[in-house]
Design goal:
The chain has 243 residues and is α/β, with parallel strands linked by helices. The chain contains eight helices and nine strands. The radius of gyration is 18 Å and the shape is globular.
Length: 243
């Protein structure tokens, strides 16, 4: 059930305006057959001909919220075009502790609009997001509306098995640091392969992030990941650059 007015726009701070327009850029997600089945939406500053990463850690909470809401509006507009490019999965970063009804209603609206164009939404729970009872309740609401919930950056210090014990996940996104360690160590490779097998037995799918070359891709296939993502398959780009 939508709360209040989900079309309300939060005005960015003047500092944000000076940085450039905030736009979604989409990075491909490939399946085991090397087919692009989905994309992850990532916020970028559009300045002149560049699309620059946003230093969220240096921004205040109001500015970050404004960016998130701007992104969600743009993603809703992009859904039909994404569907026309045979995108079937769209992964979006989720901040579950946001209390803004505008933000929460836009997430529900994305789920409703995505269903109409046969796109499945993954919401990626960030590794630093607090997960207390009210956040877990909201995540459960999103899941009840058709979302699949992904755990981002698994394998970092802030994102480990303890995070997996708090709530169930549908998708685990392995942090790039695990891939790099496995590249140089056979023991790490077999441990990672065992981890992926264990996650599969718990009915979770696994994304290997940080694929930058053919060796990384081969390792991702060897350890049994369901999906691969990284610069080897494409950098984040706006829809206007898609052909």
């Amino acid at each position: 059930m939508l709360e209040g007015d989900f079309t309300h726009y939060v005005e960015p701070t003047s500092g944000l305006k000076q940085e450039g327009a905030v736009v979604p850029c989409y990075q491909p997600i490939l399946d085991r057959k090397q087919r692009r089945v989905g994309v992850e939406a990532l916020a970028r500053y559009h300045r002149h001909d560049r699309y620059d990463s946003i230093p969220f850690e240096r921004l205040d909470a109001d500015t970050v919220l404004a960016i998130d809401i701007t992104m969600l509006h743009a993603i809703i507009d992009d859904l039909p075009t994404l569907a026309s490019h045979n995108v079937r999965v769209l992964s979006i970063n989720l901040t579950p502790d946001r209390t803004s009804s505008v933000y929460r209603n836009l997430l529900l609206l994305i789920l409703a609009r995505a269903r109409k164009v046969a796109i499945t939404i993954w919401f990626e729970v960030l590794e630093v997001a607090p997960l207390h009872s009210h956040q877990l309740q909201f995540i459960a609401t999103l899941r009840s509306h058709g979302a699949r919930i992904a755990l981002d950056d698994f394998g970092t210090e802030a994102c480990n098995f303890q995070r997996m014990l708090v709530q169930p996940y549908d998708i685990i996104k392995l942090d790039r640091s695990l891939l790099l360690q496995a590249c140089d160590d056979q023991h790490a490779t077999e441990m990672l392969r065992g981890l992926v097998d264990y996650l599969h037995r718990l009915d979770m799918e696994v994304v290997c992030e940080g694929i930058e070359n053919a060796h990384h891709g081969a390792l991702c296939e060897h350890i049994g990941c369901d999906y691969a993502q990284g610069f080897a398959y494409g950098r984040p780009s706006p829809l206007e650059q898609w052909h």
